[in-house]
Amino acid sequence: MPAPHSPEFRRRALDLVAQGEPVARTARDLGISETTLRNWMNRDAIDSGAKSGLTTDERRELVELRRRLRVLEMENEILKRASAYFARENVLPK
């Protein structure tokens, strides 16, 4: 996977397109694919509120919350199993 481009590089590419440069030529001149540049344009439109969707910060938060949920579910499952194990051990014979 190629190394990600810096935010300054992305901003410069978006500024060139905003100034009226064609997307295909801008992408070729910067050595990136046209699809990559269009994805950056789409992400910038969402982040600026011009287009609906999850912003970069919201997407990052969602990923973090899903990760935390998985950890909590695993911890809960471990506690359930431990509780069942110790409950069986504490049963007195009749």
UniProtKB/TrEMBL annotation:
GO terms for biological process: DNA transposition. Residues 55-82 form a coiled coil. Pfam families: HTH_Tnp_1 (PF01527). One of its GO terms (molecular function) is transposase activity. InterPro entries: Homeodomain-like_sf, RD_transcriptional_regulator, Transposase_8. Keywords: Coiled coil. The keyword Coiled coil applies. The keyword Protease does not apply. This is Transposase-like protein. The lineage of its organism: Bacteria, Bacillati, Actinomycetota, Actinomycetes, Micrococcales.
